[in-house]
């Protein structure tokens, strides 16, 4: 079992990853040495140069990354809670849905790039505006997917509850909420990396700390700071991936019954 | 009224009619159905699709309300019976909650009634034993076959020890072999609980094999066309299916449909 897991999943993934790195390195060499493109290393830097810079500045990337991540996480948490609550309200009352849903959709049409300075102008604090933007981005996909999940309970499953003379809140607690978990998690998985991106965006527009701040700084310094700039971009992507993986891990722990996590097709 | 009543009525439907309003017209699903089911009796509601047999069961379960007619379930109204948990119900599909293990699925109605955790734990083993699924306590529903899932649904319906068991074509999604086996198992379960069972089916042999009486319904509009007594002795075993009496009863019931 363990061996086959190694063979079927880990090994191909590792081979693929190494292949990408080799491809990257070759392309980088091609740009620099063969095609002799101007600013070739800004287009695709050598991996060994990136590694060298990473070893020198790992602590900076880590501390700044942690600031961004914790702000994004906090915003994500608030946004998710708000999204879940609104979804529950909308599923209870058509009236609430009709009143709020068009505005929830419309709110998503506002470009974040324009919203961030407005929010900053109101709160005058880069931490709070990062948290607010991350929450704002999280809110919608969570709410939408949660609402779908709440409505996914089968009519017969609801009828069973009715036959037990169950109170409405009991039906929510024992049926609708558990049935909504897969939907909730797909919403959270969409939202988590977006929350990180949103936090970085706010940082780009002016902040004192965070991965976005050093990203912008190294971009200004020009080609001499190229490797560091690339590393900030990679760190940003890495934060997004971590956030996604964390949510996936929670999903696996909390909803092991979902079809995609089922081990065998069945017995008998 | 000089005759002594030899049985207690458990379910009484008096001139029950059900009309549905569709966009184009009004559909009469049930017309003036009058039914009397005795306490401890196993009856089937038999008929082709469109005869209103499921509608009739749902009326008994208070899942829908009839347009006309009187209903008495266990001495009260259908709603009172539902609120007091007088019946357990088994649907066509098992309707198990995916996120609950078998044990927790069976205990759901007891949880709803506020039975204490210790008491629930005590009951789960006998319920699992009753339907022969003791080894599957900690499994999830999808790890069980369709027939096993339906047995879980039966155990869940029996968890509250209801006076009445309502079953809406519970085995119709299963293959013929599983269905016959489950018929036998259902009878053996019933011999231990001895409550009143109302069983909806469109299979003539199934209705005969299980029931004390078969209520034959005809479609368009749904009407009670005959009540057939099944005098076959109990306990009933699979050999019974090959007996002459069994075949005779099949013809009797077939004839009920011929006239329609």
Molecular structure report:
The complex is a heterodimer of chains A (268) and B (260). Chain A is mainly α and 268 residues long. Chain A folds into 2 domains: 1-44, no CATH class; 45-261, MetI-like (MetI-like fold), CATH 1.10.3720.10. Chain A has helices at residues 2-34, 40-43, 47-92, 94-107, 112-123, 126-150, 155-163, 168-204, 211-220, 226-254. In chain A, α3 crosses α10 (226-254) and α6 packs antiparallel against α8 (168-204). Chain B is α/β, with parallel strands linked by helices. Chain B is built from 8 helices and 9 strands. Chain B has a 6-stranded mixed beta sheet, with helices on both faces. The two termini of chain B are 35 Å apart. Chain A binds chain B through residues 154, 156-157, 159-166, 170, 174-175, 178-179, 181, 255, 257-259, 262, 264, 266-268, and chain B through 61, 63, 82-83, 85, 87, 89, 91, 93, 95, 97-99, 108-109, 111-113, 140, 142-145, 147-148. Chain A: It is a multi-pass membrane protein. Chain A: The chain crosses the membrane at residues 12-32, 69-89, 101-122, 128-147, 194-215, 227-247. Chain A: InterPro entries: MetI-like (IPR000515), MetI-like_sf (IPR035906). Chain A: Its main location: membrane.
